[in-house]
Amino acid sequence: MKIERTFLFVPADRPERFSKAVGSGADVVILDLEDAVLPEHKGFAREQAASFLAEEKGARLIVRINGSGTPWHQDDLAVVRAAGVGEIMLPKTSSARQIETVLDTIGESVEILALVETAEGIVNLTDIAGHPRISRLAFGSIDLQVDIAIPDDREALLFARAQMVLHSRARGLLPPIDGVTADVQDDEAVIADCRYARKLGFGGKLCIHPRQISPAQQGFEPGQAEVEWAREVTAAVSAGQGAVSVRGKMVDAPVVEYARRVLASCS
């Protein structure tokens, strides 16, 4: 099964950008009713999202609604339900109870991509990741920085990122999706951020511009040296008998499994 790696936000009040987003190569397009839309444009954004959802049948679309407790939340849920949306992104996901409240309105069959971006959400990851309608976890790194008053620093966010990875794995979810890279002009920064996230166990990237899709995909690809090593491991196991050594190191079952995952992740 191909893991979806790139998730592109597009402001739902900018319908002229919808087709470009779909054609960007992103695995998933997120019609954004939340942060990318000014308060005075929320109603228009809902209308445009509903129209596009009715027209576009070939693309993988998700709707990011406005959060629980905001003035626009209930109207967003009404549009989602009327459009028959199969999956939404829930911002500031903080508890299983919050998820249940949303599902009570839109229906129990809808899947939720949980955007975890507060201290409360990180603390409650056991319940959030364990909810049966959670499709995957996404990390809202910038909002979490603001919530707990820390700088934009990898080390400061390491614990939270590790929690996302561990809870995803423990609950049988796909690897989580890392937060955005704010600089849309710096392709190398996107690649570096994705390589760092992959090293920690993340499996995808939130993107805010079509330009970021290609470098994000590149960043989640294993490097040439890693692929060559993985091929050596699998070849040695296929040809060998008993104990196997590759590059002077013993190869056991966990190492073989990792090598196979590396090769499987190559696009």
UniProtKB/TrEMBL annotation:
Residues 5-210 form the HpcH/HpaI aldolase/citrate lyase domain. It holds the Pfam family HpcH_HpaI. One of its GO terms (biological process) is oxaloacetate metabolic process. InterPro entries: Aldolase/citrate-lyase_domain (IPR005000), Citrate_lyase_beta/mcl1/mcl2 (IPR011206), Pyrv/PenolPyrv_kinase-like_dom (IPR015813), Pyrv_kinase-like_dom_sf (IPR040442). Mg(2+) binds at E117, D143. The keyword Metal-binding applies. Its cofactor is Mg(2+). GO terms for molecular function: lyase activity; magnesium ion binding. Coiled coil: none annotated. This is Citrate lyase. It comes from Sinorhizobium medicae.
